[in-house]
Design goal:
By secondary structure, the chain is of the alpha/beta class. It has 5 helices and 12 strands. It has 3 domains: about 1-65; about 70-135, Roll (Ubiquitin-like (UB roll)), CATH 3.10.20.310; about 140-265, Cell division protein FtsQ/DivIB (Rossmann fold, 3-Layer(aba) Sandwich). The longest helix has about 60 residues, at about 1-65. It starts with a helix and ends with a strand.
Length: about 270
């Protein structure tokens, strides 16, 4: 009897301990599961916050780039005298463009495409300030061809005239060749003009022929062609002697050609 009671008591103790262990195990499992759910929920929350932050940042950047305060409506133009600020600004193609999208080199290229502009520099500043500094071409020659008049700079660039050009050499193209702004006159022509003016500084009107080169009219109105700028002193010396002969003989030539001093001639 004693043994039977002891065995039953032991079984009851074991059952109680098992129930206690089972209860503790279930509590542990539930706690671990709860922690895992909490970790998962926290991770999802972090991801959601990151997405929201990215969206907010994207919206902020979009608002920044599209804000009216950053859009260009005017520019400060410096260095221009002959060409208007309005024409330079129009060539820049900056109007209503965001300051963040300005390509300074591209803008400079567009402005320098204007025949009267030699160089351009573009600077920007927030919120929408643009400074354009230009160097204009300096016209030195007035070129007349048929009924058209053009300006020519030291590099031979053809430009549309803008007002009066006092003190410049006026060259009449006897062939009446058409010209276009932005094209160039051959440098040999410019060199010939410079060489002739160096010896005849008072000469302000000249002629030009594709065949005969640079020329001018004598005091009598006779057309004289000297060709290019080589041997200019020798050509003028021959012209002086030939002109004296013509005046003495009372001959009125229609043209005098001294391009080759040793073979100078005149036409009646």
């Amino acid at each position: 009897m004693i043994r039977g009671r002891s065995r039953r008591r032991s079984q009851r103790r074991l059952g109680a301990e098992y129930q206690t262990f089972s209860s503790q195990y279930r509590s542990t499992i539930e706690a671990v599961s709860a922690r895992r759910v909490a970790v998962i929920d926290t991770g999802r929350l972090s991801q959601g916050l990151a997405v929201l932050l990215l969206l907010a940042l994207g919206w902020g950047l979009y608002s920044l780039f599209t804000a009216p305060i950053f859009y260009i409506s005017a520019a400060e133009i410096e260095g221009n005298a002959l060409i208007s600020a309005e024409e330079i600004y129009a060539a820049s193609e900056l109007d209503r463009l965001s300051i963040f999208y300005v390509d300074a080199e591209a803008v400079e290229s567009r402005i320098e495409a204007l025949p009267n502009i030699k160089s351009a520099r573009v600077r920007t500043a927030l919120p929408a300030r643009v400074i354009i500094t230009v160097e204009e071409r300096t016209p030195q020659i007035v070129w007349k061809s048929d009924a058209s008049t053009w300006w020519i700079d030291a590099e031979g660039t053809v430009m549309s005239p803008r007002g009066n050009l006092d003190g410049a050499v006026v060259i009449t193209d006897v062939d009446a060749q058409p010209l276009q702004p932005g094209t160039t006159i051959a440098t040999t022509v410019l060199e010939s003009v410079a060489a002739l003016r160096a010896l005849l500084p008072g000469l302000t009107e000249m002629l030009y022929s594709r065949e005969l080169g640079i020329g001018f009219r004598t005091a009598e109105g006779w057309p004289v062609f000297v060709g290019d700028g080589r041997d200019m002193q020798a050509k003028l010396t021959v012209l002086k002697a030939l002109r004296k002969h013509l005046l003495e003989q009372r001959i009125t030539p229609s043209l005098i050609d001294v391009r080759y001093p040793q073979q100078a001639y005149y036409r009646l």
